[in-house]
TrEMBL record:
This is Uncharacterized protein. GO terms for biological process: carotene catabolic process. Its cofactor is Fe(2+). Binds 1 Fe(2+) ion per subunit. It comes from the Eukaryota. Fe cation binds at H208. It holds the Pfam family RPE65. GO terms for molecular function: carotenoid dioxygenase activity; metal ion binding. Keywords: Iron, Metal-binding, Oxidoreductase.
Length: 231
């Protein structure tokens, strides 16, 4: 919060770096008693993980995959406000890591199921790795992604990730013609860029992403019905 708000952190307060990490956590509550005790609370991975999303069809349901963004440049504790940029999209098989965590019982709060760094994950050649990373080209940074399922998909991860990407090499010259691109990435393999669509202007970092289908747009109320009051 201090970094995002560009506010100096309180002096004299000592915290361990583990407590300042932004990770994908798993919580399980015991709803059979009145206290709602937490029975499981540990991170699925040790890497920095921001703005998690799941397919709309899995919202508030048993989603197996979670998508988000991260950085290969530094650990979260080393990041400054200037460096808080996403150069990696991450796909986490949360279902597999939760199953593993319940068998291994990591330490509560500070424990991690997968303790690898993001560089170790990026270099992994395991086709069944529960964490897959799409790394942006040098100097390119993304934003919050949206998952779009393939029509008729049988697998939960059969679809695409959509995200805005900006190439900072454009900053080397002063120009009003800077632009972002919409990248469409194969969510199944987390490697293939299916398409790149140039946006007329630059999209600032930090914008959230949402996907609206053609049927969503056609079902909107007409502008006249929402912009005018009663006569």
């Amino acid at each position: 919060m201090y970094l995002t708000g560009d506010v100096p952190s309180p002096t004299g307060r000592k915290t361990r770096s583990e407590e300042e990490q932004c990770r994908l956590y798993y919580y399980q509550f015991n709803l059979s008693d009145q206290c709602n005790n937490i029975t499981h609370e540990w991170a699925l991975s040790a890497i920095w993980f921001e703005l998690p999303v799941v397919p709309k069809s899995k919202s508030m349901r048993n989603a197996r995959f979670v998508y988000g963004y991260s950085t290969a440049q530094a650990s979260f504790g080393d990041l400054t406000l200037q460096a808080l940029k996403a150069d990696c999209l991450v796909k986490v098989n949360a279902g597999a890591l939760i199953e593993k965590g319940k068998k291994e019982s990591p330490v509560r709060v500070m424990g991690c199921v997968d303790k690898r760094s993001i560089s170790e994950i990026i270099t992994s050649a395991d086709p069944n790795d529960p964490i897959k990373v799409f790394r942006m080209p040098p100097g390119c940074y993304g934003a919050e992604c949206s998952f779009v399922s393939r029509e008729g998909a049988l697998d939960e991860d059969d679809g695409w990730l959509l995200t805005f990407v900006f190439d900072e090499s454009q900053l080397q010259k002063v120009s009003r013609e800077q632009f972002s691109e919409l990248w469409i990435i194969n969510a199944k393999d987390m490697q293939s860029v299916v398409a790149r669509v140039q946006i007329p202007h630059r999209v600032p970092y930090g914008f959230h992403g949402s996907w609206f289908s053609e049927s969503d747009l056609r079902s909107q109320r007409a502008l006249d019905s929402t912009s005018r009051g009663k006569d």
